[in-house]
Amino acid sequence: MTQFCRHYMQSISLFYPQLHTPSKAVITMHQKPDGDAMGSALGLYHFLVAMGHQVQVISPTNWADFLDWMPGVDKVMDFEKNREKTKKLLEETDWLFCLDFNVLHRTKNLEKYLIEANCTKILIDHHEQPQEDTFDFGVSNTKKSSTCEMVYDFIVDSGNGSVLNLDMAESIYTGLMTDTGSFRFPATSASVHRAIAHLKDLGLEHTKVHEHLYDNFLENRLRFIGFALMNRMEVLYEFNTALMYIKHSDLHKYDIRTGDTEGLVNYLLTIQGIKFGALVIDRDEERKWSFRSKGRFDVNTFARMNFEGGGHVNASGGRSSDSLEETVNKFKQVIKEYKNQLK
Ligand code: 5GP
Ligand code: MN
To answer: CA-to-CA distance for 31 and 262, rounded, in angstroms?
Structure first.
Protein backbone atom coordinates (compact mmCIF):
# COMPACT_ATOMS: atom_id res chain seq x y z
CA MET A 1 0.00 0.00 0.00
CA THR A 2 1.33 3.46 -0.80
CA GLN A 3 0.97 6.64 1.21
CA PHE A 4 -1.70 7.91 -1.22
CA CYS A 5 -4.29 5.19 -0.89
CA ARG A 6 -3.71 4.66 2.82
CA HIS A 7 -6.93 4.86 4.82
CA TYR A 8 -7.45 5.21 8.53
CA MET A 9 -6.10 2.42 10.68
CA GLN A 10 -8.16 -0.78 10.64
CA SER A 11 -8.67 -2.93 13.71
CA ILE A 12 -5.80 -5.28 14.38
CA SER A 13 -8.24 -8.22 14.50
CA LEU A 14 -8.58 -7.83 10.71
CA PHE A 15 -4.86 -8.54 10.45
CA TYR A 16 -4.97 -11.86 12.37
CA PRO A 17 -5.76 -14.07 9.30
CA GLN A 18 -2.51 -12.90 7.64
CA LEU A 19 -0.51 -14.47 10.49
CA HIS A 20 -0.93 -17.83 8.75
CA THR A 21 0.85 -16.73 5.53
CA PRO A 22 4.67 -16.97 5.89
CA SER A 23 5.96 -13.39 5.58
CA LYS A 24 8.87 -11.06 6.24
CA ALA A 25 8.48 -8.81 9.27
CA VAL A 26 10.40 -5.89 10.74
CA ILE A 27 9.66 -4.85 14.31
CA THR A 28 10.70 -1.47 15.67
CA MET A 29 10.16 0.64 18.80
CA HIS A 30 10.96 4.14 20.13
CA GLN A 31 14.54 5.40 20.37
CA LYS A 32 16.49 4.45 23.52
CA PRO A 33 14.07 1.54 24.09
CA ASP A 34 13.04 0.89 27.69
CA GLY A 35 11.89 -2.41 29.20
CA ASP A 36 8.45 -2.19 27.63
CA ALA A 37 9.72 -1.26 24.17
CA MET A 38 12.39 -3.96 24.09
CA GLY A 39 10.18 -6.50 25.89
CA SER A 40 7.24 -6.06 23.52
CA ALA A 41 9.51 -6.15 20.45
CA LEU A 42 11.19 -9.38 21.61
CA GLY A 43 7.92 -10.95 22.76
CA LEU A 44 6.45 -10.35 19.32
CA TYR A 45 9.71 -11.46 17.68
CA HIS A 46 9.63 -14.87 19.38
CA PHE A 47 5.94 -15.26 18.56
CA LEU A 48 6.29 -14.41 14.86
CA VAL A 49 9.32 -16.72 14.54
CA ALA A 50 7.31 -19.53 16.15
CA MET A 51 4.56 -18.85 13.58
CA GLY A 52 7.07 -19.44 10.75
CA HIS A 53 7.87 -15.86 9.71
CA GLN A 54 11.22 -14.25 8.88
CA VAL A 55 11.67 -11.54 11.49
CA GLN A 56 14.15 -8.75 12.32
CA VAL A 57 13.94 -6.37 15.29
CA ILE A 58 15.50 -2.94 14.58
CA SER A 59 16.10 -0.46 17.40
CA PRO A 60 16.41 3.19 16.29
CA THR A 61 19.33 3.66 18.73
CA ASN A 62 21.35 1.79 21.33
CA TRP A 63 19.77 0.65 24.61
CA ALA A 64 20.63 0.23 28.29
CA ASP A 65 23.00 -2.57 29.34
CA PHE A 66 20.40 -3.86 31.82
CA LEU A 67 18.36 -5.17 28.86
CA ASP A 68 21.22 -7.26 27.49
CA TRP A 69 20.16 -10.46 29.28
CA MET A 70 16.89 -10.62 27.35
CA PRO A 71 16.22 -13.67 25.14
CA GLY A 72 16.93 -12.69 21.52
CA VAL A 73 18.46 -9.27 22.28
CA ASP A 74 21.71 -10.38 20.62
CA LYS A 75 19.84 -10.49 17.30
CA VAL A 76 18.42 -6.94 17.60
CA MET A 77 19.96 -4.54 15.09
CA ASP A 78 20.96 -1.00 16.14
CA PHE A 79 19.89 1.21 13.22
CA GLU A 80 22.61 3.77 13.89
CA LYS A 81 25.28 1.10 13.35
CA ASN A 82 23.48 -0.64 10.43
CA ARG A 83 21.90 2.03 8.23
CA GLU A 84 22.36 0.26 4.90
CA LYS A 85 21.13 -3.11 6.21
CA THR A 86 18.10 -1.41 7.77
CA LYS A 87 17.27 0.33 4.51
CA LYS A 88 17.41 -2.97 2.61
CA LEU A 89 15.30 -4.81 5.22
CA LEU A 90 12.65 -2.08 5.07
CA GLU A 91 12.58 -2.22 1.27
CA GLU A 92 11.98 -5.97 1.31
CA THR A 93 9.68 -6.47 4.28
CA ASP A 94 5.99 -7.35 4.02
CA TRP A 95 5.09 -6.08 7.50
CA LEU A 96 6.36 -3.30 9.73
CA PHE A 97 5.30 -3.51 13.39
CA CYS A 98 5.61 -0.29 15.41
CA LEU A 99 5.58 -0.97 19.15
CA ASP A 100 5.41 1.30 22.20
CA PHE A 101 5.28 4.56 20.22
CA ASN A 102 2.66 6.07 17.93
CA VAL A 103 4.30 9.00 16.13
CA LEU A 104 7.12 8.15 13.79
CA HIS A 105 9.41 11.00 14.91
CA ARG A 106 9.98 9.08 18.17
CA THR A 107 12.33 6.87 16.12
CA LYS A 108 14.58 9.91 15.42
CA ASN A 109 16.75 9.32 12.31
CA LEU A 110 14.94 6.09 11.45
CA GLU A 111 11.70 8.03 10.79
CA LYS A 112 12.52 8.81 7.16
CA TYR A 113 13.01 5.11 6.31
CA LEU A 114 9.80 4.09 8.09
CA ILE A 115 7.82 6.66 6.09
CA GLU A 116 9.36 5.41 2.84
CA ALA A 117 8.71 1.72 3.58
CA ASN A 118 6.03 0.50 1.20
CA CYS A 119 4.59 -2.35 3.27
CA THR A 120 1.74 -3.15 5.65
CA LYS A 121 2.27 -1.05 8.78
CA ILE A 122 0.87 -2.27 12.09
CA LEU A 123 0.66 -0.33 15.35
CA ILE A 124 0.54 -1.82 18.86
CA ASP A 125 0.75 0.96 21.47
CA HIS A 126 -0.70 2.52 24.61
CA HIS A 127 0.29 6.21 24.34
CA GLU A 128 -2.09 9.16 23.88
CA GLN A 129 -2.98 10.60 20.45
CA PRO A 130 -1.75 8.13 17.81
CA GLN A 131 -0.85 9.24 14.28
CA GLU A 132 -3.52 6.88 12.92
CA ASP A 133 -3.23 7.71 9.22
CA THR A 134 0.30 6.26 9.26
CA PHE A 135 -0.87 2.71 9.96
CA ASP A 136 -2.90 0.10 8.02
CA PHE A 137 -3.84 -2.00 11.03
CA GLY A 138 -3.44 -1.40 14.69
CA VAL A 139 -4.52 -1.23 18.27
CA SER A 140 -4.08 1.89 20.39
CA ASN A 141 -5.38 1.60 23.93
CA THR A 142 -4.26 4.14 26.54
CA LYS A 143 -5.87 2.09 29.32
CA LYS A 144 -3.41 -0.76 28.83
CA SER A 145 -0.59 -1.01 31.37
CA SER A 146 2.06 -1.65 28.77
CA THR A 147 2.71 -2.56 25.16
CA CYS A 148 3.84 -5.94 26.50
CA GLU A 149 0.32 -6.57 27.80
CA MET A 150 -0.97 -5.73 24.32
CA VAL A 151 1.47 -8.16 22.68
CA TYR A 152 0.21 -10.84 25.09
CA ASP A 153 -3.38 -9.96 24.03
CA PHE A 154 -2.34 -10.04 20.36
CA ILE A 155 -1.00 -13.58 20.73
CA VAL A 156 -3.96 -14.87 22.74
CA ASP A 157 -6.74 -12.98 20.89
CA SER A 158 -5.44 -14.08 17.48
CA GLY A 159 -6.06 -17.66 18.66
CA ASN A 160 -2.39 -18.56 19.14
CA GLY A 161 -2.08 -18.72 22.92
CA SER A 162 -0.80 -22.29 22.67
CA VAL A 163 2.38 -20.97 20.96
CA LEU A 164 3.43 -18.95 24.06
CA ASN A 165 6.77 -20.14 25.42
CA LEU A 166 9.30 -19.11 28.09
CA ASP A 167 11.18 -16.68 25.80
CA MET A 168 7.94 -14.83 25.09
CA ALA A 169 7.00 -14.97 28.78
CA GLU A 170 10.29 -13.38 29.96
CA SER A 171 10.12 -10.69 27.30
CA ILE A 172 6.49 -9.81 28.02
CA TYR A 173 6.95 -9.86 31.79
CA THR A 174 9.74 -7.28 31.47
CA GLY A 175 7.42 -4.56 30.14
CA LEU A 176 4.52 -5.57 32.38
CA MET A 177 6.78 -5.03 35.36
CA THR A 178 8.65 -1.89 34.29
CA ASP A 179 5.68 0.06 32.90
CA THR A 180 3.54 -0.64 35.98
CA GLY A 181 6.31 0.42 38.40
CA SER A 182 6.42 -3.19 39.61
CA PHE A 183 2.60 -3.50 39.67
CA ARG A 184 1.70 -0.36 41.61
CA PHE A 185 0.40 2.13 39.00
CA PRO A 186 -3.38 2.39 38.44
CA ALA A 187 -3.20 0.62 35.05
CA THR A 188 -2.24 -2.62 36.86
CA SER A 189 -5.56 -4.31 36.14
CA ALA A 190 -6.81 -7.76 37.05
CA SER A 191 -6.01 -8.79 33.48
CA VAL A 192 -2.34 -7.87 34.08
CA HIS A 193 -2.24 -10.25 37.04
CA ARG A 194 -4.10 -12.94 35.07
CA ALA A 195 -1.60 -12.65 32.21
CA ILE A 196 1.24 -13.05 34.72
CA ALA A 197 -0.39 -16.14 36.24
CA HIS A 198 -0.40 -17.60 32.72
CA LEU A 199 3.29 -16.66 32.20
CA LYS A 200 4.17 -18.27 35.56
CA ASP A 201 2.48 -21.47 34.37
CA LEU A 202 4.88 -21.42 31.41
CA GLY A 203 7.85 -21.48 33.82
CA LEU A 204 8.58 -17.76 34.23
CA GLU A 205 11.07 -17.04 37.06
CA HIS A 206 10.05 -13.49 37.92
CA THR A 207 12.76 -12.88 40.56
CA LYS A 208 15.42 -13.43 37.92
CA VAL A 209 13.88 -10.69 35.75
CA HIS A 210 13.69 -8.20 38.66
CA GLU A 211 17.35 -8.83 39.56
CA HIS A 212 18.54 -8.42 35.97
CA LEU A 213 16.76 -5.07 35.70
CA TYR A 214 17.16 -3.49 39.11
CA ASP A 215 20.14 -5.10 40.84
CA ASN A 216 22.63 -4.87 38.04
CA PHE A 217 24.10 -1.35 38.15
CA LEU A 218 27.61 -0.10 38.85
CA GLU A 219 28.58 1.75 42.03
CA ASN A 220 28.91 5.08 40.17
CA ARG A 221 25.20 5.12 39.33
CA LEU A 222 24.20 4.97 42.98
CA ARG A 223 26.77 7.68 43.87
CA PHE A 224 25.34 9.80 41.04
CA ILE A 225 21.79 9.45 42.39
CA GLY A 226 23.01 10.53 45.83
CA PHE A 227 24.73 13.55 44.29
CA ALA A 228 21.68 14.53 42.21
CA LEU A 229 19.25 14.27 45.14
CA MET A 230 21.58 16.37 47.27
CA ASN A 231 22.62 19.01 44.76
CA ARG A 232 20.26 19.11 41.78
CA MET A 233 16.77 18.93 43.28
CA GLU A 234 14.44 21.85 44.03
CA VAL A 235 11.10 21.42 45.77
CA LEU A 236 8.53 24.01 44.72
CA TYR A 237 6.06 23.48 47.59
CA GLU A 238 3.81 26.26 46.32
CA PHE A 239 3.04 24.08 43.28
CA ASN A 240 3.38 20.64 44.95
CA THR A 241 6.13 20.08 42.42
CA ALA A 242 9.69 18.79 42.58
CA LEU A 243 12.23 19.60 39.90
CA MET A 244 15.59 18.04 39.12
CA TYR A 245 18.12 19.18 36.52
CA ILE A 246 21.21 17.24 35.50
CA LYS A 247 24.10 19.09 33.91
CA HIS A 248 26.13 17.63 31.10
CA SER A 249 29.21 17.76 33.33
CA ASP A 250 27.39 15.64 35.97
CA LEU A 251 26.82 12.88 33.41
CA HIS A 252 30.47 13.04 32.49
CA LYS A 253 31.78 13.10 36.05
CA TYR A 254 29.85 9.97 37.07
CA ASP A 255 30.29 8.22 33.70
CA ILE A 256 26.51 7.93 33.26
CA ARG A 257 25.40 5.63 30.39
CA THR A 258 22.12 4.97 28.56
CA GLY A 259 19.65 3.63 31.12
CA ASP A 260 21.48 4.85 34.24
CA THR A 261 19.03 7.76 34.67
CA GLU A 262 15.93 5.61 34.26
CA GLY A 263 13.77 5.74 37.39
CA LEU A 264 15.50 8.87 38.72
CA VAL A 265 12.38 11.02 38.19
CA ASN A 266 10.34 8.68 40.41
CA TYR A 267 12.24 9.78 43.54
CA LEU A 268 10.62 13.20 43.21
CA LEU A 269 7.13 11.77 43.77
CA THR A 270 8.19 10.04 47.00
CA ILE A 271 8.11 13.37 48.86
CA GLN A 272 4.90 13.78 50.85
CA GLY A 273 2.36 15.96 49.03
CA ILE A 274 4.30 16.19 45.77
CA LYS A 275 2.02 15.60 42.78
CA PHE A 276 4.29 16.56 39.92
CA GLY A 277 7.90 15.52 39.33
CA ALA A 278 9.97 16.95 36.48
CA LEU A 279 13.50 15.91 35.52
CA VAL A 280 15.55 17.51 32.77
CA ILE A 281 18.84 16.11 31.56
CA ASP A 282 21.31 18.02 29.42
CA ARG A 283 22.00 15.47 26.68
CA ASP A 284 24.39 16.16 23.83
CA GLU A 285 21.84 17.11 21.19
CA GLU A 286 18.96 18.39 23.36
CA ARG A 287 17.58 18.89 26.86
CA LYS A 288 15.34 15.85 27.55
CA TRP A 289 12.45 16.14 30.01
CA SER A 290 10.75 13.36 31.98
CA PHE A 291 7.47 14.20 33.70
CA ARG A 292 5.59 12.13 36.27
CA SER A 293 2.43 12.91 38.21
CA LYS A 294 0.10 11.42 40.77
CA GLY A 295 -3.65 11.73 40.44
CA ARG A 296 -5.31 13.95 37.87
CA PHE A 297 -2.53 16.30 36.84
CA ASP A 298 -2.13 15.53 33.12
CA VAL A 299 1.55 15.50 32.18
CA ASN A 300 0.79 14.34 28.62
CA THR A 301 -0.91 17.67 27.93
CA PHE A 302 1.71 19.59 29.93
CA ALA A 303 4.50 18.05 27.80
CA ARG A 304 2.62 18.66 24.55
CA MET A 305 1.83 22.28 25.33
CA ASN A 306 5.21 23.33 26.70
CA PHE A 307 8.01 20.96 25.72
CA GLU A 308 7.25 19.34 22.31
CA GLY A 309 6.49 16.02 23.94
CA GLY A 310 3.71 13.70 25.05
CA GLY A 311 3.08 10.25 26.50
CA HIS A 312 0.57 9.27 29.18
CA VAL A 313 -1.52 11.19 31.71
CA ASN A 314 0.83 10.30 34.59
CA ALA A 315 4.11 9.76 32.68
CA SER A 316 5.39 11.73 29.75
CA GLY A 317 8.50 13.18 28.18
CA GLY A 318 9.52 16.20 26.18
CA ARG A 319 12.48 18.12 24.81
CA SER A 320 13.97 21.54 24.37
CA SER A 321 16.75 23.02 22.25
CA ASP A 322 17.31 25.85 24.76
CA SER A 323 20.19 25.74 27.23
CA LEU A 324 19.66 23.85 30.51
CA GLU A 325 19.32 27.09 32.42
CA GLU A 326 16.81 28.51 29.92
CA THR A 327 14.63 25.40 29.89
CA VAL A 328 14.61 25.24 33.72
CA ASN A 329 13.61 28.92 33.84
CA LYS A 330 10.87 28.30 31.29
CA PHE A 331 9.56 25.45 33.46
CA LYS A 332 9.48 27.72 36.52
CA GLN A 333 7.52 30.30 34.52
CA VAL A 334 4.92 27.99 32.93
CA ILE A 335 4.28 26.07 36.15
CA LYS A 336 2.61 29.20 37.50
CA GLU A 337 -0.27 28.70 35.05
CA TYR A 338 -0.97 25.28 36.61
CA LYS A 339 -1.12 26.39 40.23
CA ASN A 340 -4.83 25.64 40.58
CA GLN A 341 -4.58 22.21 38.98
CA LEU A 342 -1.70 21.31 41.31
CA LYS A 343 -3.43 22.33 44.56
P1 5GP B 1 10.42 8.67 30.02
O2 5GP B 1 10.35 9.85 30.94
O3 5GP B 1 10.49 7.39 30.78
O4 5GP B 1 11.46 8.82 28.96
O5 5GP B 1 9.04 8.67 29.25
C6 5GP B 1 7.81 8.60 29.89
C7 5GP B 1 6.72 8.22 28.91
O8 5GP B 1 6.54 9.27 27.95
C9 5GP B 1 7.06 6.97 28.10
O10 5GP B 1 5.85 6.26 27.89
C11 5GP B 1 7.60 7.51 26.81
O12 5GP B 1 7.37 6.62 25.77
C13 5GP B 1 6.84 8.82 26.64
N14 5GP B 1 7.68 9.87 26.03
C15 5GP B 1 8.92 10.24 26.41
N16 5GP B 1 9.38 11.25 25.65
C17 5GP B 1 8.42 11.53 24.75
C18 5GP B 1 8.30 12.49 23.69
O19 5GP B 1 9.20 13.29 23.42
N20 5GP B 1 7.14 12.45 22.97
C21 5GP B 1 6.13 11.59 23.24
N22 5GP B 1 5.03 11.63 22.49
N23 5GP B 1 6.20 10.68 24.25
C24 5GP B 1 7.32 10.65 24.98
MN1 MN C 1 5.19 1.47 27.28
So the answer is: 14
Cα of 182 from ligand 2 centre, angstroms: 13
Low-confidence stretches of the chain (pLDDT < 50) are: 1-3
Within a domain: 343: no
What is the distance between the terminal CA atoms of the chain, rounded to a whole angstrom? Answer: 50
Q: From ligand 2's centre to the CA of 231, what distance in Å? A: 30
Atom of ligand 1 nearest to the CA of 262: 3
pLDDT, tens digit (0-9, with 9 covering 90-100), for 275-291: 999 999 999 999 999 99
Residue 195 sits in a domain of what CATH number? Answer: 3.90.1640.10
pLDDT tens sequence across 42-72: 999 999 999 999 999 999 999 999 999 999 9
- Cα 253 to ligand 2 centre (Å): 30
Q: What are phi and psi of 335, to 5 degrees?
A: -60, -25
What is the value of pTM for the model shown? Answer: 0.96
